[in-house]
Amino acid sequence: MSANWIAGAAVRVDADDLAQVQPALAGVSRQAWRSFALMVGTVLLIGLVLPWFSNAYWIKTLTSALALSVAAAGVAVLYGQLGLVSLCQYALLGAGGWAALRVSHGLAWPFELCVLVGGVTSCAIGMLAGLPALRMKGLYLALVTMMMAGGFQVVINVFGFPDGGAGWLGKVQGSERLLMVRPAVAPSDAAYLRYVAVWLAAVLALIELHRRTRAGRSWALIRRGDAAAIAAGVNILRYQTWAFGLAGFCAGVGGALLAGAVGQLDGRAFAASESVMMFALTVVGGVTHWAGALIAGLLLRAVPALLTDFGVNGYLAMIFFGAALLHALITAPSGVAGQLVGALAALRARLNRARHSAP
Amino acid sequence: MNLSALPALRLVAALIAVAASGAAFGQAKCGLNTGKAAAGEPIMIGAVVGKTGPDDFSASAQAAAAYFKCVNANGGINGRPVEYIVADDQWNPETAAQVASKLVKDRKVVVLAGNTSFVECGANAKMYADEGVMVIAGTGVPRECFFAKNYVPINSGPRISATIAAMYAAKTYQSKRMVCIIPNIPSLGNWGCEGAKAWGKANGVEVETIAIDPGSADATSTMLQAAAKKPDTIIMHMPKGLLVPMMAAAEQQGMGKKIHFVSSAPAYNADVPKAIGPYWNKNFAVNLEFNPLSAAGPDNKNWQAVLDQFGAKSDPRDTFSQAGYVAARLVTETLLKMDPKKIDRASVSDALRKVSDFRSDILCKPFYVGSGNRHNANNSGPMAIVDGNGFANVPGGCVTADDPELVDVRADELKLGLK
Amino acid sequence: MDELLPFLISGLGVGAVYAMSGVGLVVLYRSSGVLNFAFGALGAIGAYVAWSLLEHDWPQALAWAAAVLTSVLLSLAYGRWLAPKLAPRDPTIRSIGTLGFALVVLGFTEWTWGEQPRRLVLPTDSLAFEFALAGGDVRLTYTRALGLLLALLMMAAVALLLSRTRVGLKMRALANDRDLSALLGIRVLQVDTVAWLLSGAFAGVCGLLLANIVRLQATLLTFLVIPAFAAAIVGRLRSLPATVAGGIVIGVLEAMAIKMPGFAPFRTATPFLIALAMILMARGNERPA
């Protein structure tokens, strides 16, 4: 049916219609760029303002949260745009972090370059991980990616993360483990928080640009079905693999930023369950709106930190988390971001009504 | 006997009993022992422990907290009370960095005492050095805890512990071929058995290492692999949670009859003999990092008294607790020698580095800190053997580890004028 | 080859573990379309309940029954009360819901019992089959042999249930198309109850045996569900005999891998590698057009 519509329908356009369509299109385009600017502006503003209100504990926590938001944005692209489940994002984060650490310690490259190396590494691995997706149904793909995360867990526990040594693995023997060198423009914790916010804004902008161009349209068609996509002339292999690559890039950048925040990464923190939690909390945050990735990062790091700060027993916090996850899944199908956006829209509508009905 | 005198006699008997029990526990002694509560400006002391995770290491901070409570009830630090803040790093290096930042940069602690964590040494040692704050840790585990300028563990550490266990096996069982099983955790798996190996090389004993994945579901294959190397002693070198299923697997394969089993310090815990069962009765020797929990020395008794009077009933009375008590006592006695108005981070760190003859019957030898680049002052310990549902002491007392890696520590000891 | 035989036998114990868990997972998937991440957690809490009761000198059989009852009740609670609320969502979200439940159960278990080294001893531990092999002596305890037997029995029982009983037919219909089945008059709640009850019972039995064969530690037992998924994948989430065979093969290969010089440190990755290999080789499960 959709194939017929695209290929067969002929539409007659006359001058009147064009005169109405063009300003409408311009209006929509303006609106789109406005929301784009709003997104970038909000993230940069958050990054600027947060260090003023946070003590050292919260600066570190929120830096981790923003780094994980970068990775969560990648998960949101795959699930929100294409409906594909990736349960190995945290493993890709680890792979990116590994590459960034190795390059930073071994070649002493500038931090930005290390982050890009991390991103590109995870992009490549992500594209490989996405190859099974060409033949798999939803839950099966989820299981495949979970198996990959399990494999990564074992490998990284054997290899460990680079900490200043030589050789392929870069592990130091017999002397002090080194911390990753921070970027020259942001050595302090507060400055680094702002730096990570800039990267988050850049990554979100990159994703948004994808969504608004041919890539986004191709993804929407692929989501409707292979036949629709092929009939429209979309190269499924290229665009689907590219989506996995983009998600991997987000994970790699997030991993490099996390490595820079803490200084070291530890293999024990990369269990397969972390990838599953990241997917779960990204869904809770919301996969269609950019704020969902931000909320996912906060849920992953800031909420547990809050509970720890209040001295809540770690296991009671786990119970609370599980219950909150269930509750969010049940009551908020479009995620917390969806609920917030809906609430904002309702508020705006009510204000507009009040303004219009006022004498 | 006059019936009317019975109640009075009972009362007298009760009073005598109370006095006797009081004498058995002893009154907890700490700090200035004035019996008066301290009420000055608080001194901030912090601790980072691994509580939520594969194991709960918070006993050392609990013991230190009890000691500091006792100090506060007994005149404080020359009138100033101690405010002791404990943070849980949840076995995650990221969280460890966050909570250490909170303690050092937000709460501005002057020293940390009673830390016990698997992950915080690696994550925080550099920050502690950069901020000039000393850590008198309860228990250190991975290598980074024993190779940091500002981190001073009270315990001897896994490498020393396994070395002493190997030395015991060679002496008692004339063992010439040993296998050391250790989890492949970074900075532990490639370090913990190396002391035994190096000692063995210099003494004609062959020691091989098997590194295991702590998340593995298959303990039997590991024990079979160890047995296939035909050792006469197996050195178990892992946390007690991993130890119990491996000993169970060894028992099911009947290995206790052919091979001697010894372990490093983590096995010295009240729950272990019951969990591993009667098969290992008198068949499993364990190294201790401190003197036994039931030793009769006055400081050991004081530790128990402090916990009874100022700790919670649920606080474990284990070796982590001993370590936390000793750490808190060391910090308290150092602070007491300082001018209470001049207690800040720099002066406290200075004073701590000068500690050179701290004695406690919990420790085998006098403890010191010094200005070296690393700290491993406790490098001796006794052995105990599993007996029924508990442990029995082994003759021989404290054994000093003969680990070639300790050469720089011995040099530091000479510099401080110790033997 | 001689050196590998002892490990083949010791691998059968772990293999039985994976096989049983795999069957438990596939059963629920085939009847409700949900991958149960809480399978391990439900088994773990059952095992801890059994341990506590045995510590208080309860008779063995009652302790085991209490363990299985705990798992069944918790599973029913989720299946009847929480799972229906997620019913309109897609299968992945429904499976993530069980993850939330797993965290609640795991957190409760760890908080209640704490981290003390424990061992769940079963009476079948003291008896064993002895093998004196060239590569070394090996003993296969009755518990592990029992695990193997139970895996096969469970597989046969579930296969019978699904193919020969009315309830089984209804379960298969529900897994196929829930809405259509409801329209046809199948009482959805009733069938769901049976499915979650069965899954809970399997979880309880698996939990007891797992706690004995592996380790009585809640977090480890909960996340052993991930390698168990590997066994389920070998069975394509459909075939129970293939799941059991897959689980046993995975266990045996993981044990034998200890003898491969370069691969030994990575041997815990064996379940994942085998699952990935199976998926890449499988030709089915084409994407819908």
Oligomer: heterotrimer
Helical amount among residues of chain A, as a percent range? over 70%
* E-strand count of chain A: 0
Shape of chain B: globular
User: How many DSSP helices of chain B?
Assistant: 13
- Whole-angstrom Rg of chain B: 23 Å
Could you list the spans of chain B in which at least 5 consecutive residues all have pLDDT below 50? 17-24
- What would the average pLDDT of chain B be, to the nearest integer? 90
- Strand order across the largest sheet of chain B: 9-8-10-11-12-14-15
- Sheet with the most strands of chain A? none
Ends of chain B: how far apart?
A: 65 Å
The SSE order of chain B reads: HEHEHEEHEEEHEHEHEHEHEHHHEEEEH
Indicate the structural class of chain A.
mainly alpha
- The low-confidence runs of chain A, each spanning 5 or more residues with pLDDT under 50, are 1-8
| SS element count, helices of chain A | 14
Number of strands of chain B: 16
Give the C-alpha Rg of chain A.
22 Å
Mass-distribution shape of chain A: globular
- Level-1 CATH class name of chain A: Mainly Alpha
Tell me roughly what share of residues is in helical segments of chain B: 25-40%
Which features does this protein show?
heterotrimer; A: 359 residues; mainly alpha; ABC transporter involved in vitamin B12 uptake, BtuC; C: 289 residues; two-stranded antiparallel sheet; 71% helix; globular
Task: Explain what you see.
The complex is a heterotrimer of chains A (about 350), B (about 425) and C (about 290). Chain A is mainly alpha-helical. Chain A has a single domain (about 30-285), classed as ABC transporter involved in vitamin B12 uptake, BtuC (Orthogonal Bundle), CATH 1.10.3470. Chain A contains 14 helices and no strands. Chain A has helices spanning about 1-10, 15-55, 55-80, 90-105, 110-130, 140-160, 190-210, 215-225, 225-230, 235-260, 270-285, 290-310, 315-330, 335-355. Chain A is globular and about 80 Å long. The model of chain A is unreliable at about 1-10 (pLDDT under 50). The longest helix of chain B has 21 residues, at about 5-25. Chain B is globular, with a radius of gyration of 23 Å. Chain B has helices at about 5-25, 60-70, 95-105, 120-130, 160-175, 195-200, 220-230, 240-250, 270-275, 300-310, 320-335, 345-355, 405-415, and strands spanning about 45-50, 80-90, 110-115, 115, 135, 140, 150-155, 175-185, 205-210, 235, 260-265, 285, 380, 385, 390-395, 400. With about 425 residues, chain B is an alpha/beta fold. Chain B contains 13 helices and 16 strands. Mean pLDDT of chain B is about 90; it is low at about 15-25. In chain B, the strands form four sheets. Chain B has a seven-stranded mixed beta sheet with strand order 9-8-10-11-12-14-15. A five-stranded parallel beta sheet of chain B has the order 2-1-3-5-7, sandwiched between helices. Chain C has helices at about 5-30, 40-55, 60-85, 90-115, 140-165, 165-175, 180-185, 190-215, 220-225, 225-235, 240-255, 270-280; strands at about 130-135, 135-140. In chain C, helix 1 (about 5-30) runs antiparallel to helix 11 (about 240-255) and helix 5 packs across helix 6 (about 165-175). Chain C has twelve helices and two strands, in the order ααααββαααααααα. By secondary structure, chain C is mainly alpha-helical. Chain C is globular, with a radius of gyration of 19 Å. Chains A and C meet through helix 6, helix 11 and helix 13 of A and helix 3, helix 4, helix 10 and helix 12 of C.
